[in-house]
Design a protein that fits this description.
Largest sheet: 3 strands, mixed
Number of strands: 3
CATH class: Alpha Beta
Number of helices: 4
Order of helices and strands: HEHEEHH
CATH topology: CBS-domain
Helix content: 25-40%
Mean pLDDT: 76
Distance between the termini: 16 Å
CATH superfamily: CBS-domain
Length: 109
């Protein structure tokens, strides 16, 4: 598997539009994108559910505004290899269905 090619389906720059994020969500199988800054550092995540919830709160949704305005900046996360039954229970309790391995864009560490 080409990890760089596989990972390219998930990141979106924080300055890119909600429209671009929506297109990437539509193109990957997970229903999620990770939002990074220009240095490739994680800013937040955006799921298809986050987008639906945002859309229904807007009178005139502007999907051409920067995605950073609608991302979840406080995602639940754990370090790779430190997943415990307790952290899994906390995640399940919050209704989470996706987990991503995110470090720096293009990096696998």
């Amino acid at each position: 598997m080409n990890l760089d090619r596989e990972m390219s389906r998930y990141p979106v720059l924080d300055e890119e539009s909600i429209r671009v994020a929506l297109q990437k969500i539509d193109q990957n199988d997970e229903g999620v994108v990770v939002c990074v800054d220009t240095a490739g550092l994680l800013i937040g995540i955006l799921t298809d559910g986050d987008l639906r919830r945002w859309l229904v709160t807007q009178d005139s949704p502007d999907i051409d505004q920067p995605v950073r305005s609608v991302i979840n900046q406080n995602p639940v996360w754990t370090r790779l290899g430190l997943m415990t039954p307790e952290s899994g229970q906390r995640r399940e309790g919050r209704g989470l269905t996706a987990s991503s391995r995110v470090a720096r864009l293009g990096s696998t560490s």
